[in-house]
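sry for the spam today, last one i promise. struct tokens for design, 765 residues
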């Protein structure tokens, strides 16, 4: 029974299956004879470290290869040369680098015949000089000072020591007490220093046995003063530089543990603790808990130490049972005691207990151990699941979402928005099966889902996200929670506890307006009246966002692909990942230019000032798309016709409006109606946003035009109407526009996002 207990404990022990990692997967851990553990990493911008200041350069031109700290972050200065810092060792708290010795050598009459100052400049605040270093001076007529580099450290201090001796017999071996050798400490937090060798009498009195004075900063325990033999040793400088390193403290960040917890810059993994660094500019390091070992910066964290695995170092006198972070000692049958070698061990039991009593006791003990181990195991698994969900919550912007919602408290946030679990959404989509995919967008994939109550929803699963995509995702959630309009896709809830975030929308099942317009021959139902109805509903929804929402909202990516149609062909505006809230006391915001090819407002492109009139311009392109049945940009069209908006304005000026319109639109619309719609489109596409109508005005005008009674078609295309005349500014703009949009172009916004690529805007010919 005891053997069975031991086997069960061993199988459940984390140390039985875990392996200590040194680096991230796929990264090299050795440079010559040096081991480079994470958070350090070999290679510049290789992704093997936590940041550029921890990138180790491995120079393979040496044999064996040598490792150096990042260039431009650290350097030794010797004479007028800048030298890279060669690493000789990396530990949990320190980096040891190769030394440089300053010296001055004199002639018999006191002239300087050779000299070299030395210093260290550490640009990064993540490294400071360790208290393990001492400033050491060697010589019989010397004194040394150390001070920070002027203009970098911002500190005003100096420290030094004096080393003198009258004759060679006075110099003791092994002691830096001030006779032939002296040493002094450094203040904590120092990142730079300049050290020079100074003399009292230019070595004229001691020149016969001491011609040079030496000064260097180095690890105190690594240097042993050899007495007078160091004065005459020609290899003293090289030997000291090879054997006495400079010790640097390294930390992560510049703030305390509490300030980094629950942020993306907190790197301490499971079974480890965060330790604040008290010196310098702050920062922290991670350390494994007692009973654990490994790299505390690499997932899944530190591994349990199996104290029972090594029979030569077994802490128990009896039976050893490994536990997470600890161990337990017990005595075998017939023995008693605590079972520990440092305790009273195990001794033969003299009791003659009845067999039944012994059996019951052992049975109860076995059952207790099993229950205890089961409780520990399931508690451990439960903690792992909770921590994993917390990790995903933070990774997917949970704190950012909470801050955004708190900042908009009382601002119309939909309190009925539901928080879904990962299991619910996996079941609804058959574990995100491919046959449930409705479409793919710039920020994720949309799946059809069937919830437990039978309702059909659309579930948007974000792609593997970086920091900028998390901001877009959270922005869409915040925007949608403040919108309640029949022509805007409704957000039903979200899930942040999965590896990538999920949004749950009402399902709009009839595709996009883009699909209906540009499918072969167009849809049978797409009459002029239905086109105007879609335009009216879309304009009404955008007008609501601009003026009726609690805080004005600019969609910023109005296009036919973001206008959905439900089973009753009712319009639904979607995709608010790029949208922006406008403060009530402002009329515009400055943003990174972002939009979709062919729809982007030229004024917004040139000024980066986003206004509600930017949506008006994009809606004008959609309205033009409805009237012509043509795509906003098409490389297959002639050079003059590739840009639909530019071609429309040119055609309008040349009195060729009706050649552009869709044949069905021409058949079903009256002359007055079509010319009025064209005039409205022209106003929406005005180069000056101030002269464009508001979305509310656009919606009202479209509603009026939809009610116009159709008149029999009369061939009046040749009559020039004042509504088709272009302003001088527009004519000047178009005359300088190259319609070849695919030769000279500027890419904006996300280059990896096929749905939200920046406008390839025309350049001057």
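last one done:
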């Amino acid at each position: 029974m005891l053997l069975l207990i031991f086997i069960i404990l061993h199988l459940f022990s984390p140390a039985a299956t875990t392996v200590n990692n040194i680096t991230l997967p796929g990264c090299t851990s050795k440079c010559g004879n040096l081991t480079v553990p994470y958070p350090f990493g070999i290679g510049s911008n290789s992704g093997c470290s936590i940041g550029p200041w921890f990138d180790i350069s491995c120079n393979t031109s040496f044999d064996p290869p040598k490792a150096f700290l990042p260039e431009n972050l650290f350097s030794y200065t010797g004479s007028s040369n800048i030298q890279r810092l060669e690493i000789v060792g990396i530990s949990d708290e320190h980096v040891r680098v190769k030394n440089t010795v300053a010296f001055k050598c004199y002639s018999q009459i006191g002239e300087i015949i050779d000299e070299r100052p030395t210093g260290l400049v550490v640009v990064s605040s993540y490294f400071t000089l360790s208290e393990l270093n001492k400033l050491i001076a060697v010589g019989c007529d010397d004194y040394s000072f150390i001070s920070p580099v002027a203009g970098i450290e911002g500190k005003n201090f100096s420290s030094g020591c004096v080393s003198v001796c009258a004759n060679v017999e006075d110099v003791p071996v092994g002691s830096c007490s001030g006779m032939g050798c002296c040493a002094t400490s450094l203040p904590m937090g120092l990142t730079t220093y300049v050290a020079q060798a100074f003399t009292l009498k230019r070595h004229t009195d001691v020149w016969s046995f001491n011609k040079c004075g030496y000064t260097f900063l180095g690890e105190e325990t690594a240097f042993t003063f050899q007495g007078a033999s160091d004065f005459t040793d020609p290899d003293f400088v090289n030997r000291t530089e090879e054997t006495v390193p400079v010790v640097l403290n390294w930390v992560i960040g510049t703030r305390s543990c509490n300030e980094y917890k629950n942020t993306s810059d907190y790197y301490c993994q499971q079974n480890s603790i965060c330790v604040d660094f008290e010196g310098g500019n702050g920062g922290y390091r991670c350390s494994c808990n007692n009973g654990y070992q490994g790299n505390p910066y690499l997932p899944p964290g530190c591994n349990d130490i199996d104290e029972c695995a090594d029979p030569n170092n077994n802490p128990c006198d009896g039976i050893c049972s490994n536990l997470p972070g600890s161990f337990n000692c017990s005595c075998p049958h017939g023995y008693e005691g605590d079972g520990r070698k440092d305790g009273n061990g195990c001794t033969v039991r003299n009791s003659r207990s009845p067999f039944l009593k012994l059996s019951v006791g052992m049975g109860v003990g076995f059952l207790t151990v099993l229950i205890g181990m089961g409780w520990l195991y399931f508690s451990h698994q439960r903690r792992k699941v909770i921590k994993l969900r917390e990790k995903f919550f933070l990774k997917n912007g949970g704190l950012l979402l909470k801050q955004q919602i708190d900042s908009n408290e009382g601002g119309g946030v939909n309190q009925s928005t539901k928080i879904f679990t990962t299991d619910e959404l996996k079941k609804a989509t058959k574990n995100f099966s491919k046959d449930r995919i409705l479409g793919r967008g710039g920020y994720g994939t949309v799946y059809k889902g069937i919830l437990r109550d039978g309702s059909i929803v659309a579930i948007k699963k974000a792609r593997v996200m970086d920091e900028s995509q998390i901001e877009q995702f959270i922005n869409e959630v915040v925007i949608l929670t403040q919108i309640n309009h029949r022509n805007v896709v409704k957000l039903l809830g979200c899930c942040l506890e999965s590896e990538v975030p999920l949004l749950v929308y009402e399902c709009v099942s009839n595709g996009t307006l883009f699909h209906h317009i540009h499918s072969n021959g167009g849809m049978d139902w797409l009459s002029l009246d239905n086109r105007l109805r879609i335009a009216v509903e879309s304009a009404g929804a955008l007008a609501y966002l601009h003026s009726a929402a609690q805080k004005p909202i600019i969609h910023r990516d109005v296009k036919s692909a973001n206008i959905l149609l439900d089973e009753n062909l009712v319009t639904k505006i979607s995709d608010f990942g790029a949208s922006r809230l406008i403060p009530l006391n402002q009329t515009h915001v400055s943003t990174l230019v972002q939009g979709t090819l062919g729809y982007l407002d030229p004024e917004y492109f040139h000024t980066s000032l986003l206004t509600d009139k930017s949506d008006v311009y994009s809606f004008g392109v959609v309205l033009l798309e409805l009237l012509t049945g043509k795509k906003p940009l098409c490389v297959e069209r002639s050079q003059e016709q590739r840009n639909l908006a530019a071609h429309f304005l040119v055609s309008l000026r040349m009195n060729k409006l009706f050649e552009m319109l869709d044949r069905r639109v021409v058949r079903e619309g009256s002359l007055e109606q079509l010319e009025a719609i064209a005039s409205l489109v022209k106003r929406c596409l005005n180069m000056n946003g101030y002269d464009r109508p508001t979305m509310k005005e656009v919606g009202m005008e479209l509603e009026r035009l939809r009610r116009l009674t159709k008149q029999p078609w009369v061939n009046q295309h040749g009559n020039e109407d004042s509504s088709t005349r272009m302003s001088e500014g527009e004519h000047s703009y178009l005359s300088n526009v190259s319609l070849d949009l695919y030769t000279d172009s500027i890419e904006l916004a996300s280059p990896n996002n096929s749905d939200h690529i920046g406008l390839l805007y025309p350049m001057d010919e």
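The mean pLDDT is 79. ok im logging off now
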